[in-house]
Amino acid sequence: MTGVNILIEANDQNKSRLLIDCGLFQGEKIGDEKNHAPFPYDPASIDALVASHAHIDHTGRIPKLVKEGFKGKIFSTPPTKEIARVLLIDSIGILSKESKAAGTPPIYTEEDVERSMNLWQGISYKEEFSVGDLKISFKDAGHVLGSAMTEIKFGNKKFVFTGDLGNSPAPFLPDTEIIKDADYLVMESVYGDRDHEHRADRKILLEDVIEETMNKKGTLLIPAFSFERTQELLFEIKEMVSHSRIPLVPVFLDSPLAIAVTEIYRKYLSYYKESAKKSSVVGDDLFSFPQLRFTRATEASRAIHNVKQSKIIIAGSGMSNGGRIVHHEREFLPDPKNTLLILGYQSPGTLGRKLQDGAKRVKIFGEEVEVRARVVTIGGYSAHKDSTHLLEFVDGSSDTLKKVFVALGEPKSALFLTQRIRDYLGVDAVVPRIKETINLSMV
What we know:
By secondary structure, this protein is α/β, with parallel strands linked by helices. Helices cover about 30% and strands about 20% of the residues. A 7-stranded mixed sheet has the order 6-7-8-9-10-19-20, covered by helices on one side. The protein has a 6-stranded parallel sheet with strand order 13-12-14-11-15-18, sandwiched between helices. Helix 4 (about 80-100) packs antiparallel against helix 5 (about 110-120), helix 4 (about 80-100) runs antiparallel to helix 8 (about 255-265) and helix 13 (about 385-395) packs across helix 14. It is globular and about 70 Å long.
């Protein structure tokens, strides 16, 4: 489920109102009518907002919220604030084009982003802050740099909102913190109905895909999210190059956004796990192998198509719903020598999902494009926990949990995980409906 937006109303003296995330709906068009629709509450009535992490489906409507009257405080970890600013500004281009085509005003402007940043405060993990009588702290979710679970204490009860939970262990990030004594849990379920390949398996699969495509003298296209996924991918390609496990071909990082996010990564080594802090692959060296080429300018991106030799192109966006990868897909999908490698979840309605589901023809920039290239998915690169590890996460609090609300995923995955929680852990679990109001004093 995209467009994450949860409203908490506390029965305290101030009747405090807190939002958890305020994300864009992402589908066939990220600037669709759901994003333009009025909020189901008065933005000016909200006291504060917590951003679990910087992904646009969790932060993308924050500038809209501010534009429409929100004047409260925004809280997140410091890396989330910095990365969110870069992602929000980057999204303006796509949103503006879609709004212009639809004859609607932009959802937000760069001025709205900057106004949001002026309300935004960075809070470290475990540092407690208050909204009315709500006592709030962040725990490391292990999903992406700066991602946080939101732990709320109200009276003698503890509520935990997971945001997205990381696919631990990861090359850079600490494992997801264990929650042991929650009373109520609102959790994600993106991969609630399936498990990933083992991390060791994903490296083998990646190596195989690269070798097979290069042996055919083809081009490997990798749509990748600009932070965490891209960094992990480059880390593993570098290892393969260093150990001569793949052919030495040009690797294009065709994403100014990914490069900008990497600069933020270099500022926050304290958020890495200990083994990564001591590794020689952090910082500049992460991008140091000779075959890697950055393409910041549009002209340099277009020039990639003139490189006739085998190559690897890593470009955004991760779901092929915009960005430079779409131009490369139009160019390279018709050739059976080429491969499109999908590394993570693809929302329904996105071009990436259509390609993952086996579409033989897709429309790109209004043009019908034949899909003759091989399309491969490697799930082990997901930054989300899979079904088994989500269940293990819930088990940490199974002795104290009164109810689990399984959300932030497609209905099929949410329902499957809900049943597993009931069957395996004996914990009451439900799938809340969109716009449903739940009174926890009645639960």
